[in-house]
C-alpha cells in the first residue's frame, strides 16, 4: 500500500531530483524550522546512520546547513538553505495537487479514516523511547 501511495508522488520528486527521504527532511525543516538530527530521525522515521549520510549529501549540494550548537559543540542544528526553501515552495503546489487527487479518488471520509488508522498503528508500534520505528535508507 505504501508503494502505491508513494508512487503517486514520485513524478513530482523526480522533477526536483530529491529522494523521498530528502523531501521528508525538507518538509520537516520547512514546517518546524531548525532541528537537531535526533529530532529529524524521529519526525522523518529515518535511522540515525541513514540520516547522517543523507544530510551530508544534502549539505554537499547546498540544500541544508549544519551548525554546531553554541552551548554544546556535540550537538548540531540543521536548517534549510535559501535554495531548499525555494525548491520546497516550487514543489509544494504539485504535492498538494497529488493529495487532492487522492482525496477525490478515495473520498474525504476514507482519507480521514486512513490517517486515523495510520496514527493508531504508529502509536502501537512506538519503541521504548516513544519513537516510531525508523525507516532505513533503501
Task: Throw out a few tags for this protein.
138 residues; mainly alpha; Arc Repressor Mutant, subunit A; two-stranded antiparallel ribbon; 6 helices; 2 strands; globular
Describe this structure in words.
Strands 1-2 form a two-stranded antiparallel sheet. A hairpin with a 7-residue loop joins strand 1 (64-68) and strand 2 (76-80). 15% of the residues are buried. The chain is globular, with a radius of gyration of 16 Å. With 138 residues, it is mainly alpha-helical. The chain has a single domain (2-124), classed as Winged helix-like DNA-binding domain superfamily/Winged helix DNA-binding domain (Arc Repressor Mutant, subunit A, Orthogonal Bundle). The protein has 6 helices and 2 strands.
Looking across the biggest beta sheet, what order are the strands in? Answer: 1-2
Number of domains: 1
CATH topology: Arc Repressor Mutant, subunit A
Number of strands: 2
Low-confidence stretches: none
Structure class: mainly alpha
Shape, principal axes of CA atoms: globular
Strand/helix succession: HHHHEEHH
CATH class: Mainly Alpha
Helix content: 55-70%
How far is the N terminus from the C terminus?
17 Å
For the report, how would you describe the main beta sheet?
A: 2 strands, antiparallel
Supply the CATH superfamily name: Winged helix-like DNA-binding domain superfamily/Winged helix DNA-binding domain
User: What do the pLDDT scores average to?
Assistant: 87
Helices, by number, come to: 6
Gyration radius, rounded: 16 Å
The proportion of strand residues reads 5-15%
CATH architecture: Orthogonal Bundle
Amino acid at each position: 500500500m505504501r508503494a502505491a501511495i508513494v508512487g503517486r508522488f514520485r513524478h513530482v520528486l523526480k522533477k526536483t531530483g530529491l529522494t523521498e527521504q530528502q523531501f521528508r527532511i525538507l518538509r520537516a525543516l520547512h514546517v518546524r524550522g531548525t532541528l537537531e538530527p535526533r529530532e529529524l530521525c524521529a519526525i522523518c522515521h529515518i535511522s540515525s546512520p541513514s540520516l547522517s549520510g543523507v544530510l551530508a549529501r544534502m549539505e554537499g549540494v547546498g540544500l541544508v546547513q549544519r551548525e554546531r550548537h553554541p552551548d554544546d559543540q556535540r550537538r548540531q542544528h540543521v536548517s534549510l538553505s535559501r535554495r531548499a526553501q525555494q525548491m520546497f515552495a516550487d514543489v509544494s503546489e504539485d504535492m498538494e495537487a497529488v493529495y487532492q487527487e487522492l482525496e477525490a479518488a478515495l473520498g474525504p471520509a476514507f482519507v480521514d479514516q486512513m490517517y486515523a488508522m495510520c496514527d493508531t498503528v504508529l502509536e502501537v508500534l512506538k519503541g521504548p523511547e516513544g519513537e516510531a520505528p525508523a525507516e532505513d535508507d533503501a
